[in-house]
Specification:
alpha+beta; 4-stranded antiparallel β-sheet; 327 residues; disordered C terminus
Length: 327
Protein backbone atom coordinates (compact mmCIF):
# COMPACT_ATOMS: atom_id res chain seq x y z
CA UNK A 1 0.00 0.00 0.00
CA UNK A 2 1.41 3.39 -1.00
CA UNK A 3 2.55 5.76 1.72
CA UNK A 4 2.06 8.84 -0.49
CA UNK A 5 -1.34 10.02 -1.74
CA UNK A 6 -2.15 13.03 -3.93
CA UNK A 7 -5.67 14.44 -3.77
CA UNK A 8 -7.57 16.88 -6.00
CA UNK A 9 -9.38 19.45 -3.80
CA UNK A 10 -11.88 21.62 -5.74
CA UNK A 11 -13.43 24.98 -4.94
CA UNK A 12 -17.19 25.65 -5.00
CA UNK A 13 -19.63 28.48 -5.51
CA UNK A 14 -23.13 28.89 -4.11
CA UNK A 15 -25.56 29.26 -7.00
CA UNK A 16 -28.33 29.73 -4.45
CA UNK A 17 -28.07 30.77 -0.79
CA UNK A 18 -31.25 31.50 1.15
CA UNK A 19 -30.73 32.40 4.82
CA UNK A 20 -33.82 32.01 7.01
CA UNK A 21 -34.65 33.27 10.47
CA UNK A 22 -32.28 32.87 13.39
CA UNK A 23 -33.36 30.01 15.66
CA UNK A 24 -33.22 30.09 19.49
CA UNK A 25 -30.05 27.94 19.35
CA UNK A 26 -28.31 30.71 17.44
CA UNK A 27 -28.26 28.93 14.07
CA UNK A 28 -30.17 29.95 10.96
CA UNK A 29 -32.20 27.83 8.62
CA UNK A 30 -30.22 27.71 5.37
CA UNK A 31 -31.00 26.44 1.91
CA UNK A 32 -27.98 26.24 -0.33
CA UNK A 33 -27.08 24.95 -3.77
CA UNK A 34 -23.36 24.35 -4.24
CA UNK A 35 -21.50 23.56 -7.44
CA UNK A 36 -17.92 22.26 -7.71
CA UNK A 37 -15.33 24.08 -9.84
CA UNK A 38 -12.18 23.19 -11.74
CA UNK A 39 -10.23 25.70 -9.61
CA UNK A 40 -8.52 23.48 -7.07
CA UNK A 41 -5.83 22.93 -4.48
CA UNK A 42 -3.73 19.78 -4.49
CA UNK A 43 -2.85 17.88 -1.32
CA UNK A 44 0.18 15.59 -1.06
CA UNK A 45 -0.17 13.39 2.02
CA UNK A 46 2.86 11.36 3.08
CA UNK A 47 2.85 8.76 5.87
CA UNK A 48 6.04 7.76 7.68
CA UNK A 49 6.63 5.15 10.36
CA UNK A 50 8.23 6.46 13.56
CA UNK A 51 10.30 3.80 15.31
CA UNK A 52 10.01 3.54 19.07
CA UNK A 53 6.76 5.51 19.25
CA UNK A 54 3.09 4.60 19.41
CA UNK A 55 1.91 8.20 19.04
CA UNK A 56 0.48 9.97 16.00
CA UNK A 57 1.54 13.35 14.64
CA UNK A 58 0.42 15.56 11.76
CA UNK A 59 2.29 18.42 10.12
CA UNK A 60 0.55 20.67 7.58
CA UNK A 61 2.34 23.11 5.28
CA UNK A 62 0.68 25.40 2.73
CA UNK A 63 2.43 26.61 -0.43
CA UNK A 64 0.56 29.53 -1.98
CA UNK A 65 0.41 30.01 -5.75
CA UNK A 66 -0.90 32.53 -8.30
CA UNK A 67 -1.33 35.52 -6.02
CA UNK A 68 -3.10 33.65 -3.22
CA UNK A 69 -2.18 35.03 0.19
CA UNK A 70 -0.08 32.58 2.28
CA UNK A 71 -1.97 30.90 5.11
CA UNK A 72 0.62 31.13 7.87
CA UNK A 73 -0.96 29.32 10.82
CA UNK A 74 0.24 26.49 13.09
CA UNK A 75 -0.53 22.97 11.86
CA UNK A 76 -2.84 22.45 14.83
CA UNK A 77 -5.10 25.28 13.65
CA UNK A 78 -5.52 23.92 10.12
CA UNK A 79 -8.78 22.10 9.38
CA UNK A 80 -6.76 19.37 7.62
CA UNK A 81 -4.99 18.62 10.92
CA UNK A 82 -8.35 18.36 12.67
CA UNK A 83 -9.73 16.03 9.97
CA UNK A 84 -6.77 13.64 10.18
CA UNK A 85 -6.72 13.62 13.97
CA UNK A 86 -10.44 12.88 14.11
CA UNK A 87 -10.09 10.07 11.56
CA UNK A 88 -7.19 8.53 13.49
CA UNK A 89 -9.19 8.64 16.71
CA UNK A 90 -12.40 7.29 15.18
CA UNK A 91 -10.77 4.36 13.39
CA UNK A 92 -7.93 3.77 15.89
CA UNK A 93 -5.26 4.25 13.25
CA UNK A 94 -1.94 6.07 13.05
CA UNK A 95 -0.12 4.59 16.02
CA UNK A 96 3.62 5.02 15.53
CA UNK A 97 3.09 7.20 12.45
CA UNK A 98 3.73 10.77 11.32
CA UNK A 99 1.73 12.30 8.48
CA UNK A 100 3.08 15.25 6.53
CA UNK A 101 0.68 17.22 4.34
CA UNK A 102 1.65 19.79 1.72
CA UNK A 103 -1.22 21.86 0.35
CA UNK A 104 -0.51 23.52 -2.99
CA UNK A 105 -2.91 26.41 -2.52
CA UNK A 106 -4.72 28.00 -5.46
CA UNK A 107 -8.05 28.71 -3.71
CA UNK A 108 -7.94 31.94 -1.67
CA UNK A 109 -9.15 31.78 1.91
CA UNK A 110 -11.98 33.93 3.34
CA UNK A 111 -13.49 33.98 -0.15
CA UNK A 112 -16.65 31.86 0.11
CA UNK A 113 -15.09 29.26 -2.19
CA UNK A 114 -14.85 26.46 0.38
CA UNK A 115 -11.10 25.93 0.15
CA UNK A 116 -10.64 24.84 3.76
CA UNK A 117 -13.65 22.52 3.74
CA UNK A 118 -12.49 20.99 0.47
CA UNK A 119 -9.01 20.41 1.91
CA UNK A 120 -10.55 18.66 4.92
CA UNK A 121 -12.56 16.35 2.64
CA UNK A 122 -9.42 15.65 0.60
CA UNK A 123 -7.50 14.80 3.78
CA UNK A 124 -10.23 12.34 4.81
CA UNK A 125 -10.00 10.60 1.44
CA UNK A 126 -6.21 10.40 1.82
CA UNK A 127 -6.60 8.89 5.29
CA UNK A 128 -9.03 6.31 3.92
CA UNK A 129 -6.54 5.28 1.24
CA UNK A 130 -3.57 5.16 3.61
CA UNK A 131 -5.37 3.22 6.32
CA UNK A 132 -7.58 0.94 4.22
CA UNK A 133 -10.88 2.55 5.29
CA UNK A 134 -14.03 2.56 3.17
CA UNK A 135 -14.51 6.22 2.14
CA UNK A 136 -18.24 5.61 1.72
CA UNK A 137 -18.69 4.50 5.32
CA UNK A 138 -21.10 6.40 7.55
CA UNK A 139 -18.26 7.06 9.98
CA UNK A 140 -16.35 9.05 7.34
CA UNK A 141 -19.45 11.05 6.46
CA UNK A 142 -20.10 11.75 10.16
CA UNK A 143 -16.52 12.93 10.63
CA UNK A 144 -16.90 15.29 7.67
CA UNK A 145 -20.16 16.73 9.01
CA UNK A 146 -18.63 17.22 12.45
CA UNK A 147 -15.70 19.20 11.05
CA UNK A 148 -17.70 21.73 9.03
CA UNK A 149 -21.02 22.21 7.27
CA UNK A 150 -19.51 22.28 3.77
CA UNK A 151 -17.12 19.33 4.17
CA UNK A 152 -19.58 16.53 3.22
CA UNK A 153 -20.40 18.30 -0.05
CA UNK A 154 -16.79 17.94 -1.20
CA UNK A 155 -16.90 14.19 -0.66
CA UNK A 156 -19.58 14.20 -3.34
CA UNK A 157 -18.99 17.19 -5.64
CA UNK A 158 -21.16 18.02 -8.61
CA UNK A 159 -24.18 20.16 -7.78
CA UNK A 160 -26.26 19.55 -4.67
CA UNK A 161 -29.17 21.08 -2.76
CA UNK A 162 -28.55 21.30 0.99
CA UNK A 163 -31.09 22.12 3.69
CA UNK A 164 -31.50 22.38 7.48
CA UNK A 165 -28.46 24.53 8.38
CA UNK A 166 -27.06 24.21 4.87
CA UNK A 167 -25.38 20.93 5.81
CA UNK A 168 -27.97 18.24 5.07
CA UNK A 169 -28.00 16.74 1.57
CA UNK A 170 -31.46 16.80 -0.01
CA UNK A 171 -30.95 16.05 -3.67
CA UNK A 172 -28.53 16.22 -6.55
CA UNK A 173 -29.03 18.58 -9.47
CA UNK A 174 -27.67 17.90 -12.94
CA UNK A 175 -24.35 19.79 -13.01
CA UNK A 176 -23.72 22.39 -15.66
CA UNK A 177 -20.77 23.12 -17.87
CA UNK A 178 -19.25 26.33 -19.03
CA UNK A 179 -16.81 29.03 -17.92
CA UNK A 180 -17.01 31.49 -15.07
CA UNK A 181 -14.78 34.17 -13.58
CA UNK A 182 -14.00 34.60 -9.88
CA UNK A 183 -12.91 37.97 -8.49
CA UNK A 184 -11.78 38.66 -4.94
CA UNK A 185 -10.72 42.07 -3.60
CA UNK A 186 -7.75 42.29 -1.27
CA UNK A 187 -9.79 41.54 1.86
CA UNK A 188 -11.95 38.76 3.22
CA UNK A 189 -15.31 38.64 4.97
CA UNK A 190 -15.88 36.81 8.24
CA UNK A 191 -18.89 34.51 7.92
CA UNK A 192 -19.86 35.14 11.55
CA UNK A 193 -19.70 38.90 11.01
CA UNK A 194 -21.81 38.60 7.85
CA UNK A 195 -24.50 36.69 9.73
CA UNK A 196 -24.53 39.31 12.50
CA UNK A 197 -25.00 42.03 9.88
CA UNK A 198 -27.76 39.96 8.27
CA UNK A 199 -29.61 39.66 11.58
CA UNK A 200 -29.56 43.45 11.92
CA UNK A 201 -31.24 43.86 8.52
CA UNK A 202 -32.68 40.51 7.35
CA UNK A 203 -33.54 40.04 3.68
CA UNK A 204 -36.57 37.75 3.24
CA UNK A 205 -36.76 35.03 0.60
CA UNK A 206 -39.65 35.53 -1.81
CA UNK A 207 -42.01 32.72 -2.77
CA UNK A 208 -40.77 33.02 -6.37
CA UNK A 209 -37.17 32.35 -5.32
CA UNK A 210 -38.24 29.44 -3.10
CA UNK A 211 -40.32 27.85 -5.86
CA UNK A 212 -37.49 28.20 -8.37
CA UNK A 213 -35.12 26.29 -6.08
CA UNK A 214 -37.74 23.66 -5.24
CA UNK A 215 -38.57 22.99 -8.88
CA UNK A 216 -35.02 23.01 -10.24
CA UNK A 217 -33.81 19.73 -11.70
CA UNK A 218 -30.48 21.01 -12.98
CA UNK A 219 -28.03 23.76 -12.11
CA UNK A 220 -29.09 25.64 -15.24
CA UNK A 221 -32.69 25.83 -13.95
CA UNK A 222 -31.65 28.04 -11.03
CA UNK A 223 -31.87 31.79 -10.87
CA UNK A 224 -28.78 33.00 -9.02
CA UNK A 225 -29.71 34.14 -5.51
CA UNK A 226 -27.91 35.12 -2.30
CA UNK A 227 -29.73 37.07 0.43
CA UNK A 228 -26.54 37.25 2.52
CA UNK A 229 -24.78 39.35 -0.11
CA UNK A 230 -26.09 42.76 1.03
CA UNK A 231 -24.86 42.10 4.57
CA UNK A 232 -21.39 41.23 3.28
CA UNK A 233 -21.39 44.32 1.07
CA UNK A 234 -22.07 46.50 4.11
CA UNK A 235 -19.04 44.96 5.84
CA UNK A 236 -16.79 45.26 2.77
CA UNK A 237 -18.10 48.05 0.49
CA UNK A 238 -15.56 47.19 -2.22
CA UNK A 239 -17.78 44.20 -3.00
CA UNK A 240 -20.33 46.65 -4.40
CA UNK A 241 -17.71 48.00 -6.78
CA UNK A 242 -16.74 44.48 -7.87
CA UNK A 243 -20.38 43.53 -8.52
CA UNK A 244 -21.18 46.71 -10.42
CA UNK A 245 -17.97 46.43 -12.43
CA UNK A 246 -18.74 42.85 -13.45
CA UNK A 247 -22.30 43.69 -14.45
CA UNK A 248 -21.10 45.98 -17.25
CA UNK A 249 -18.34 43.76 -18.64
CA UNK A 250 -18.79 42.40 -22.15
CA UNK A 251 -19.10 38.63 -22.27
CA UNK A 252 -20.95 38.23 -18.95
CA UNK A 253 -23.92 35.91 -19.49
CA UNK A 254 -27.46 37.13 -18.81
CA UNK A 255 -30.39 35.23 -17.36
CA UNK A 256 -32.83 34.68 -20.22
CA UNK A 257 -35.79 34.96 -17.82
CA UNK A 258 -34.86 38.27 -16.20
CA UNK A 259 -32.29 39.82 -18.51
CA UNK A 260 -30.05 40.42 -15.49
CA UNK A 261 -26.28 39.74 -15.61
CA UNK A 262 -25.35 36.39 -14.08
CA UNK A 263 -23.23 37.89 -11.29
CA UNK A 264 -23.33 36.80 -7.64
CA UNK A 265 -21.35 36.81 -4.41
CA UNK A 266 -20.44 33.25 -3.37
CA UNK A 267 -21.58 32.53 0.18
CA UNK A 268 -20.54 35.32 2.52
CA UNK A 269 -17.75 36.25 0.09
CA UNK A 270 -15.47 37.87 -0.58
CA UNK A 271 -15.32 36.22 -4.03
CA UNK A 272 -17.88 37.31 -6.61
CA UNK A 273 -18.43 35.17 -9.68
CA UNK A 274 -19.95 35.71 -13.09
CA UNK A 275 -21.03 33.22 -15.73
CA UNK A 276 -19.46 33.86 -19.11
CA UNK A 277 -20.63 33.25 -22.65
CA UNK A 278 -17.25 31.87 -23.72
CA UNK A 279 -13.82 31.10 -22.38
CA UNK A 280 -12.41 33.93 -24.49
CA UNK A 281 -14.77 36.33 -22.70
CA UNK A 282 -13.67 34.89 -19.34
CA UNK A 283 -9.99 35.45 -20.17
CA UNK A 284 -10.73 39.03 -21.17
CA UNK A 285 -12.59 39.78 -17.93
CA UNK A 286 -9.80 38.25 -15.84
CA UNK A 287 -7.20 40.41 -17.55
CA UNK A 288 -9.26 43.56 -16.98
CA UNK A 289 -9.94 42.65 -13.33
CA UNK A 290 -6.23 42.24 -12.61
CA UNK A 291 -5.66 45.76 -13.90
CA UNK A 292 -8.12 46.88 -11.20
CA UNK A 293 -5.83 45.27 -8.61
CA UNK A 294 -8.07 42.29 -7.82
CA UNK A 295 -7.31 38.59 -7.60
CA UNK A 296 -9.11 37.03 -10.57
CA UNK A 297 -9.28 33.56 -12.12
CA UNK A 298 -11.24 31.86 -14.87
CA UNK A 299 -12.36 28.26 -14.43
CA UNK A 300 -15.22 25.92 -15.31
CA UNK A 301 -17.97 24.02 -13.54
CA UNK A 302 -17.17 20.32 -12.92
CA UNK A 303 -18.99 17.27 -11.62
CA UNK A 304 -16.10 16.09 -9.41
CA UNK A 305 -15.60 16.32 -5.70
CA UNK A 306 -12.36 15.66 -3.85
CA UNK A 307 -10.68 12.62 -5.39
CA UNK A 308 -7.51 10.59 -5.27
CA UNK A 309 -5.22 11.24 -8.24
CA UNK A 310 -4.07 7.78 -9.27
CA UNK A 311 -0.51 7.23 -10.43
CA UNK A 312 0.00 7.30 -14.20
CA UNK A 313 -3.50 8.75 -14.61
CA UNK A 314 -4.01 10.63 -17.86
CA UNK A 315 -7.21 12.27 -16.59
CA UNK A 316 -7.02 16.04 -16.58
CA UNK A 317 -8.01 17.69 -13.30
CA UNK A 318 -10.41 19.98 -15.13
CA UNK A 319 -12.38 17.08 -16.61
CA UNK A 320 -13.28 14.92 -13.64
CA UNK A 321 -16.79 13.85 -14.49
CA UNK A 322 -16.01 10.25 -13.54
CA UNK A 323 -14.99 11.21 -9.99
CA UNK A 324 -15.89 9.10 -7.01
CA UNK A 325 -19.36 10.14 -5.83
CA UNK A 326 -20.31 9.58 -2.22
CA UNK A 327 -22.27 11.19 0.58
Amino acid sequence: MSDVVTVFSPAKVNLHLAIGERHPDGYHGVRSVMHALSLHDMLTVRRERVSGSDGFSVRVRCVAHEGVEPLDIPSEDNIVYKALMKAADTFDRGRGEAVNVVIDKHIPHAAGLGGGSSNAAAALLAACRLWGIDPESQEVIDIAAGIGADVPFFLRGGCAVLGDRGDVFERELVPMKGPLVLIRPNAGVSTAEAYRAFDEEPVPVSSTVFENEQNAQSAEDLQLFNNLALASERILPELVRVREWLCVQQGVARDERTGEPCVLLSGSGSATFCLCGSMAAAYSIVSAAKLEGWWARSCTFVSAGARIMEKNSSVCATNLGAAQRIW
